Amino acid sequence: MNKIANRAVMCEVLKEAASKDQDVVVLxxxxxxxxxxxxxxxxxxxxxxxxxxxxQNLVSIAAGLASCGKKAFAVSPASFISTRSYxxxxxxxxxxxxxxxxxxxxxxxxxxxxxxxxxxAQDIAAMSAIPGMRVYLPSDRHQTRKLFEALLRDxxxxxxxxxxxxVEDTYEEGNVPFEMDKATVLSEGTDVLLxxxxxxxxxxxxxxxxxNGKGISTAAMDxxxxxxxxxxxxxxxxxxxxxxxxxxxxxxxGGLGSMVAQVISANDPKRVINLALPDTPVITGTSSQVFxxxxxxxxxxxxxxxxxxxx
Amino acid sequence: xxxxxxxxMTMNELAIKAYDLRQDVLDIIVSGGGGHIGxxxxxxxxxxxxxxxxxxxxxxxxxxxxxxxxLSKGHCVETLYAVLADKGFLDIEEVKAQxxxxxxxxxxxPHNTLPGxxxxxxxxxxxxxxxxxxxxxxxxxxxxxxxxxxxxxxxxAEGSVWEGLMAASxxxxxNLCAVIDRNHLQISGNTEDVMGHHDLHARFxxxxxxxxxxxxxxxxxxxxxxxxxxxxxxxxxxxxxxETVKGKGSALMENKASWHHHxxxxxxxxxxxxxxxxxxxxxxxx
Lengths: 311, 286
Known about the structure:
The complex is a heterodimer. By secondary structure, chain A is of the alpha/beta class. Chain A folds into two domains: 6-161, Rossmann fold; 184-310, Rossmann fold, CATH 3.40.50.920. Chain A has twelve helices and twelve strands. In chain A, the strands form two sheets. Chain A has a seven-stranded mixed beta sheet with strand order 2-1-3-4-6-5-10, with helices on both faces. A five-stranded mixed beta sheet of chain A has the order 7-9-8-11-12, sandwiched between helices. Chain A is globular. Chain A starts with 5 loop residues before the first helix and ends with a helix. The radius of gyration of chain B is 18 Å and the shape is globular. Chain B has one domain (3-284): Rossmann fold. In chain B, the strands form two sheets. In chain B, strands 1-2-3-7-6 form a five-stranded parallel beta sheet, with helices on both faces. In chain B, strands 4-5 form a two-stranded antiparallel sheet. Chains A and B meet through α3 and α5 of A and α6 and α7 of B.
């Protein structure tokens, strides 16, 4: 298992950027430790703003900084920055067109036993509904680096969800295909298309391996860019498939599955199954226990596909 | 002519201009079929005074050294439009013709695609925190610009305002000045009945802000004295509590919560216009 969490990679990239560009500013809401940003705060104290436990303030202050030319990265637990600060994200970042990157850490069910207050299973739906807001869920540390390097180069607001714990690599060091706002095809196939985002990409990739081993030709796609969704890439990958299955660490409404189904139904109608968290508070457990329970691990995904093809 | 006499003339000219701008606000609202006339009228002198002090001009609208203003009580955009037009940012006749019309850029809250408007507002309780960010950026960049925001007294019930107050004093942002349009009324009635502020001065002081009370927040001279003091205050942000009259300009509207966003009919329009003219003429004869 890789020992480096995606959030730690974020800190590395932001430190590299801050060393060359004093306009790179990071803000935290008493969350520098959770965000692995303590070393950023210690290395670049003049480019770090602590706002205390006040997420609405965090986002508005970031917008004020950005309006004066700063490249502001507001970093706070995904559950709080996405919904407690929702209006600030909408008005001060997207509507006012400020260059604020909203980074939701410990996303999805990363906080495990801490319960629904700390789970962010609504963030994709909420943030995607804001005009002008982009939404990204990188899958592993390598893609996280590529994404943050790209975000540092652009001037628009975006929301990024990162998980808390290290995850298995999806990509190999030195071989990380990445194009901004284009999904990455992990494997080709002819029967089934799997589409996942964030921490669900690695189990989806493994599920594709299981299915291909059983003779079910399965393609796998990493849709790290939820908004703007790579419609062209999706339709190309879905062409000729019997079944499309989406996998996400999110509520069953308004997330990746909803958006994929919207595109498929309008352009190339076929069966789409949405694998997601339930419309209830999530069962207590670690991420891997929770994923297994709801059939979101490699075996569960493969089982869903196998059953669906028999129906 | 002594310096103080020159200053007095300037003040009186601005006081007269405030009544011209009130007529503009009235015209904008009637043309658009709605607007927040009560708070517009209470805040005319505050915005007019500020824009005659601030380092802003349409020629240098993107100057990084410009002063910043955020209308946190964004629903009083009609006054902002009138003041921005007076400063040359907007064409007042275009605003009057287009306000709230289908497809218009001149909507009922500030929008920063228009020249002179820094940030979008309208949802209350955002402006102060945004200004904290602007003031921090100025300090980081070693710039001398000042940052101002205008907050309604009803708006102070938004908890996010108090998050901004905490952060501004924590970071000792003496380049930041907030003004409270203390007209004592909001849409449902008296602020003290809706959600009481009690001793507002003490509340701000307890957040480590320098607090200036302006007895008549519709008096340009008193406002200028307060802004002078705010500029000289070092080591903490300043809040000016400007005691204003909601609906200022006509007895028909003054101190009446029902005029929060009342749309004047033709008879009311004429009565208000007449009184605005009379008050302006009285100032001209002073």
